[in-house]
């Protein structure tokens, strides 16, 4: 039995489209008795919406960059929360230093903090808009998210968070910054999934990704990199792919 763990955006879905070849390959992979999982920076609500919409058959989801693991029935198998005071330190910093909103996700909902200044037009689902004062009452925070206007700003915010706070880690990806508990990554998420599946006799683990939050898992599991990834990601390996189905076909 093999385990294949794929990133979602620009890996499984290219430019937001999941090719029919990929859907069919995943189905064949699972029919052979193998396990398919998605590892993503998205929260569970966002990634479940994508799997339902695209009819993706998935056994496990590693969401929030490794901080949450759920099975195909939406049962929570693992959850790593940011301690409340640590989360508020980061939220206050982002709120005061940058325009635009800050988002918070836990296992139940996605909340958006009304910005001190700047726009509050969000291109994704939120369950409720709250004030910075109301944010102090939110508990069980799994991930903090900040949207930025461009790649350069994303990298600046990512580096600032990682240098200023030793209790969290920030992953920048194009125009989004995902912030989770320190020492959490997709690689630790896969390790935790391995432990969950310890009775399944997993003989091989395959991973595929394209971005900064995929680096740890690509390094640890000798992973594949999407051919159009940025150069610093492509330098991690000599194993490239166009569609995820390419990987599945050579490993069935």
UniProtKB/TrEMBL annotation:
Gene Ontology MF annotations: magnesium ion binding; phosphatase activity
GO cellular component, one term: cytosol
Zinc-finger recorded as keyword: no
InterPro entries named in the record: HAD-like_sf (IPR036412), HAD-SF_hydro_IIB (IPR006379), HAD_sf (IPR023214)
Organism superkingdom: Bacteria
Key words, A-Z: Hydrolase
Signal peptide annotation: none
Keyword Membrane: no
Family annotation (Gene3D superfamilies): 3.30.1240.10, HAD superfamily/HAD-like
Alphabetized PANTHER family for the sequence: HAD SUPERFAMILY HYDROLASE-LIKE, TYPE 3, PHOSPHOSERINE PHOSPHATASE
Record protein name field: HAD-superfamily hydrolase
Organism field: Brachyspira pilosicoli WesB
């Amino acid at each position: 039995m093999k385990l294949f763990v794929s990133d979602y955006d620009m890996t499984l879905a290219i430019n937001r489209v999941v090719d029919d070849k990929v859907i069919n390959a995943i189905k064949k992979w699972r029919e052979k008795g193998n396990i398919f999982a998605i590892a993503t920076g998205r929260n569970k609500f966002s990634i479940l919406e994508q799997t339902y919409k695209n009819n993706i058959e998935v056994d496990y989801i590693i969401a929030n960059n490794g901080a949450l693991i759920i099975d195909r029935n939406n049962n929570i198998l693992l959850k790593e929360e940011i301690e409340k005071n640590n989360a508020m330190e980061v939220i206050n910093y982002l709120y005061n230093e940058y325009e635009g909103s800050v988002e918070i996700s836990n296992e139940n909902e996605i909340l958006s903090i009304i910005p001190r200044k700047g726009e509050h037009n969000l291109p994704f689902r939120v369950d409720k808009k709250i004030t910075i004062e109301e944010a102090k009452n939110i508990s069980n925070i799994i991930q903090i998210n900040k949207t930025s206007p461009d790649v350069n700003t994303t990298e600046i915010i990512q580096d600032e968070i990682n240098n200023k706070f030793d209790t969290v880690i920030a992953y920048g990806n194009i125009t989004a910054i995902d912030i989770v508990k320190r020492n959490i990554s997709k690689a630790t998420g896969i390790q935790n999934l391995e432990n969950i599946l310890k009775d399944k006799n997993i003989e091989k683990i395959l991973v595929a990704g394209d971005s900064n939050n995929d680096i740890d898992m690509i390094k640890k599991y000798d992973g594949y990199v999407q051919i159009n990834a940025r150069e610093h990601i492509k330098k991690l390996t000599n194993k490239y792919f166009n569609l995820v189905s390419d990987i599945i076909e050579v490993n069935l």
